[in-house]
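Render this sequence as a predicted structure.
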Amino acid sequence: MQFHLHGPQAGIITTSDYTSAKIQDIYPDRIWKELEKNNVVVIAGFQGMNDKKDITTLGREGSDTTAVAISAALNQKECYIYTDIDGIYDKDPHKYTDAKKIHHLSYDEMETLANNGANVLHNRCIKIAKKYQIKIIVSSSFEEKEGSMVSLLGTD
């Protein structure tokens, strides 16, 4: 059975910076309770709750940041991000036919790409993954192709 939670229901606590809030903590008790019942837990990304119990949003790529932060809160070692492209490229494959897929990247390499405007993963997402050593696998939602992995050394 699927069980759906909004960010606040999933225990995501953020700052009060509306449209650009940062995750401060996650209390995953409710997530764990549903997983223990063998439910598939679907969590709305991009949102949380501040200390006044107001709903906040994380801004650009907030869903990816949510996914990696939830992975960290659940002590997971991998996080799969499904998107409209089949991995991470050296340039936008929608604009450039000669774009080359990068199969393995380190956190630092991906963070540099994100800071230089790559819209695949937000740098906040990468910082969380690096801090908790969570491998991020970026793959296509539409095609069964090998994706790209972001990890400590880019190859593990």
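Summary. The CA atoms of residues 34 and 41 lie 7 Å apart. Helices lie at 29-36, 62-73, 107-115, 123-132.
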